[in-house]
Please model this.
Amino acid sequence: MADLLSFARVPCEIVAAIYTADLFSGLGHLVGDMATIVSKPLREHVETTMPAVKEFMETDPKFIEASAMDKMLFNFQIHHIVPHPASKSDAELFIETATGAGLAFLVSAAATWYGYLPMWFARVWLLAIMFVTLVQNVHISAHKRNHGC
Model:
């Protein structure tokens, strides 16, 4: 019976890790979408093509003079109108996500090594961290597909 439970544990942990990765990715997305851009002119500005968004971000004072947080939120929220955040390529988006996930993985692995995380939790959590980059990139790819890219 113990062998059967050990065998069943692996797929259960994988499913739990995928769910956890999707949950945290979704929560991050929710926070980014619901955050308010403080600058009203920037918040109300709409562009419908990637080239127009890039030009706006490079030349328009509404974007250039905005706070760093407003710029980040605009760049994040525009992905509902254009295929993906206009200021970054697919490779840059992947590296950005993987860098954050890699740091979280190293901190969590160290916490596990020193006994701060129980092994059962660490297996699910560390696997979830590895899935987060994939989940985020699949999400952005879905937006691109919806825009015919």
Summary: The chain has a mean pLDDT of 86.
